[in-house]
Request: fold
Amino acid sequence: MKRASNRGWPSTIVGIVLLALMLFPLYWMVNASLQPAGNALQGGWFPLHPDFDGYATALHDQGRNLITSLVVALGSVVFSLGLAAPAAYALAQFPIRGTNLVLFGILITQMVPNIAVATALYNAYNDLGLLNSYFGLILADSTAGVPFAIIIMRSFMQSIPREIIEAALVDGAGRLRTFRSVVLPVSANALITAAVFTFLFTWSDFLFALTLTTTETVRPITLGIYQYLGAHTNQWNAVMATAVLASVPAAVLLVVAQRHVTADATRGAVK
Reply:
């Protein structure tokens, strides 16, 4: 046992070193956000005298953009799950012809470059008047969220015993009520997993935001950070503070939903 313990030390040290390397950019982002305005490289390794002016500037300049990103991300989650959940249930439980062909088509949509989708959407949005709109961004971001959510939820819904669904039908519940009262509660982990990843896709989107918005009326936080950057910027504390604030919702969501995401991933592995 002592030899086995000794052999484990090198792996532990290597793991700690790799973890430190991966977390260092995050640490430096927080550290730079607490430094006075100026060149980020001139700051110390530790914020011994933290300066919160960067956060005040970030909230003043980017507060609206943070709210925009939150509205678009939550809207994309609701819209994507509203379409993907019944579609996944039908593909998983109903004897539909061409199911494999439909799934193949869904996978193909995941391979289309976003730049091609963004270009096509720009022309369509320009004709429909959807540029610089919340609904336009929600619809665009859902082009990635819906296919992914269908794939995730169909895999789970296939494992639901048909006896449960048949028992609900025998008790007089219709297809819609069975789906709402039986299938969705049982599929909670899959729904949360799909919602988390759809939120993250939308929250980190830059391409659709850059292509489909031309004014400051609707501007997500990713585009707000991009507008900060320039050849002569000296507000790196505000830039880093904005990045920290933009990371908080995603980090909180992952921490809160970790148990459900892990449970869904484990269930898929056992299956």
